[in-house]
Structures are given as C-alpha cells and as structure tokens.
Amino acid sequence: MEDTLVKIWELLTIYGIKVVAAIVVLIVGRWVAKGLTGLTEKVMNKRQIDPTIVSFVSHLTYIALLVFVVIAALGQLGIQTTSFIAVLGAAGLAIGLALQGSLSNFAAGFLMIIFRPFKVGDFIEGAGVAGTVEAMQIFTTQLVTPGNKTVIVPNASLTAGNITNYSAKGTRRIDLVMGISYGDDIDHAKKAISDVLAKDERILKDPVTTIGVVELADSSVNLAVRPWVKVEDYWNVYFDLTENIKKRLDSEGISIPFPQRDVHIYKHNEQ
Known about the structure:
Elements: H1 2-46, H2 51-76, H3 82-98, H4 100-115, E1 123-126, E2 129-136, E3 140-144, E4 150-154, H5 155-159, E5 164-165, E6 171-173, E7 176-180, H6 186-198, E8 210-216, E9 221-226, E10 228-230, H7 234-251, H8 258-270
Antiparallel strand pairs: 1-2, 1-5, 2-3, 3-4, 6-10, 7-9, 8-9
Helix pairs in contact: 1-2, 6-7
C-alpha cells in the first residue's frame, strides 16, 4: 500500500507540474493572442481599412495564434505534437490546392491592405475596367463605373497588372485637343480659349494651365488645352469646357475643322 501511494505521488508530482505548465501556457498564450489581435485591429482601423476586412483578419489572426498556443500546451503535457502538426499541414495543403484561386485573391487583398494602392471612393483603372471603388472585400473589390454599373473584380486580377489611381493626388489634368484651320490666327484662338478658362472658377491656378500647339495635322492646327481641376470636378469641367470653347471659337469666327472632332474623340477614349 505504501509503495502504491509513493507511485501515485510520483505520478502526481511529474504530471501535476506538466498540467500546471500547460494551463499557464494556455492562459498566458490566450492573453498574448488577444493582445496581438487587438493591436492588429488598431493598426488597421488607423489606416481606415474596411470594417469587414478588419473583422476577418483579426479573427483569422486570433485563431492562428490560438492554434499555436494549444499545440504548445499539448507539448507541455508530453504529447507528441509532431504527427498532429503533420496532419494539420497535410490538411492545409489539400485545402490550399482546392482553394488555390480563392487563396490567391485573399493574398492579393491582404497585400492591398498593407500597401493601400487605393481606398474606398477613389476612381481607379485596373484589370481592364475603370470605376469608383465602392467596397474592398476579402476576395474581391467592388467598382461602380461612370455608367452606374457594378463590377466585381477579383483581387488577384487587380494586383496582377497596373493600377491607375486617378484620385490619389486630389487633382487631375484635363487634356483637350482643339483644332483650328490653318488660315486662323493661333494667338487669337489661344486668347479666346484663355478667356473661357479664366471664367471657370473650378479651374485651379496652380498648376498653371497649358495652351499650345501640339500638332500640325493634315487639315488642322491642333491646340493642346490642359487645365488642372479637383478630382471631383473633372468630368463636369471637361464637358463644360468642350462646349464653351467651341461656342467661343465660333463667335470669334474661328472654325474647328470637321475631321478634328473624330480625332478628339479617339484621343479621349485612349485615356
């Protein structure tokens, strides 16, 4: 009987210490996991990241850290975790292969969170489509085109090519090409165009507007008109200037050759 009690005491001493160590690892590890998760949330909230992405990434971070803590606690109990980790690795590999496309989109979304090439509300062009960013989701980015069409773009498609952010700098340059006949006075035309620009308060004083001869075409002398405006005023100013400059040149007796209209539309579509 005495020998049995001694063995029980020895077992309690050995495994009791391991159980206590495992409990300590679980408690401390969980506390650290919560702290790191909270820090991750604060960093992402300061960067004004979409709340959906913040919630998803924080939960994913907490689960990953908690799994690590549980494995460490099992190791304290003397349980062989090598085979357990191998099983988890094999399962993860199988899931990764099955969800390769989704994971690539998730990875691309995570990279966009870190580097922030654009944010909600920016007008961007990428993956063959242009529009205003309406939502940055886990696997996709939602754009709204100028024609009010919703386009869902996979994040991997966006990061696979060039992304043009028209809103990043806060200002945009309007590129107009107005053609006049060879018989018209260039200085007179430039003065008329300058008067139209001066009357539009939406045009910025800095940077300075550029007006100059950009091309001697077959049937016209092409003038480049390049004023700067705020991003939100771009299209309204673009349409108004095109109309007002045409009317002013007509009133001054300066003709815009008909073929030039086709050239102008073509160049606009290229942009």
